[in-house]
Amino acid sequence: MPSGSEPTLATDLQERAARALPAEHVERLGGWWLRHAPGCAWWVGTVLPHGTADGPGELAVRVTEVERYYAERGSQARFQITAGVAPEGLDELLAERGYRRHGLMSLRAAPTCRVLERAGSGSPCLRVQERPTRAWFETWHAVSGTDTDPSGEWALLRRVRSLSAYACALAGDEVVAVGRAVADTGWAGLFGMATRARARGRGAARGVLAALARWADANGADHLYLQVERDNAAAVRLYEGMGFGEVSEYHYRVAT
Predict the structure, then answer these.
(1) Reading across the β-sheet that carries 78-82, which strands appear in turn?
(2) Which helix (H) or strand (E) holds 248?
(3) From CA 20, how far away is CA 159, in angstroms rounded?
(4) φ, ψ at 209 (rounded to 5°)
(5) Residue 85: predicted pLDDT
(6) What are the Cα distances from residue 67, in Å, to 64, 94, 167?
(7) Which residues in 210-238 are b (16+ Cβ under 10 Å) and which e?
(8) Most buried residue, 185, 188, 230, 231, by most Cβ within 10 Å?
(9) Is there a contact between 182 and 130 (Cβ–Cβ < 8 Å)?
């Protein structure tokens, strides 16, 4: 966050998300989260630059230290940049060092009661469990488009220590849509929302979202948050329709 500022809601939610998507190794550097997550989707291992840095000189030193951390682990640094959260000048510095801008994301939140009010009735057949089943995971992995080794993603789920829920929408005996929620002191983050192509537009994702909201409400989470690609129009429409407002947008800087 900028020097002298107080933590923002965006800072808080992104750090909650980092706990719900736990990297294999996390090191703190002046408040920055350096996350190493081999075998997982690359964004799980991005840097959260949430601490202060005193001026451009200090920023350059900090970035060099970050690059060394990742080089020692055989990977490249990737930064998550949120206006008002990342230190001033970091985005421009990374661009000068050859990091390309990648992706535009939307961090969104909603009161759980609002989501439940808008959920309506007529949800598909749903199942909510405390742990992921093989069918849940296979559906998520088939839709997610990641080319990571499935064992790395399974390991990530095993690292989650907070109370969690894994929801499935069923068509007969087949799992056609999934999502998961992680509770964290009055909030629940929603992750892994995925719907098979043949089930899209039929309320499966909406049903999964409603089931996770009901679970969150029953477990003391009165607010929900999620992250979605800004260009995923169908998902953005769904979340807006369910009452999720934007907290902030952010993007990544990736070494070329």
Answers:
(1) 78-82, 245-255, 99-111, 223-229, 187-195, 174-184, 164-171, 125-129
(2) strand 245-255
(3) 9
(4) -60, -45
(5) 93
(6) 5, 11, 38
(7) bbbbbbbbeeebebbbbbbeeeeeebbeb
(8) 188
(9) no
Q: Report d(CA 247, CA 191) in Å as an integer.
A: 17
pLDDT for the residue 216: 98
3-state SS of the chain: helix, strand, coil percent to 5? Answer: 40, 30, 30
Q: Give the closest residue to 165 by CA, choosing from 232, 97, 112, 201.
A: 112
Q: Is 142 helix (H, G, I), strand (E, B) or coil?
A: helix
What is the Cα–Cα distance from 33 to 51, expressed in whole angstroms? 9
CATH code that applies to domain 108-247: 3.40.630.30
Could you list the pLDDT tens digit for every one of the 256 residues in the chain?
A: 333 344 699 999 999 999 999 999 999 998 999 999 998 999 999 999 997 777 678 999 999 999 999 999 999 999 999 988 999 999 999 999 999 999 999 999 999 999 999 987 666 689 999 999 999 999 999 998 666 678 899 999 999 999 999 999 999 889 999 999 999 999 999 999 999 999 898 889 999 999 999 999 999 999 999 999 999 999 999 999 999 999 999 999 998 8
| Single-letter amino acid, residue 156 | L
- CA nearest neighbour of 253 among 24, 26, 92, 13: 92
Of 119, 177, 185, whose CA–CA distance to 143 is shortest? 177
Cα dihedral: 162, 242, 170, 42 (round 10) = -50
| Domain residue ranges in the chain | 9-106, 108-247
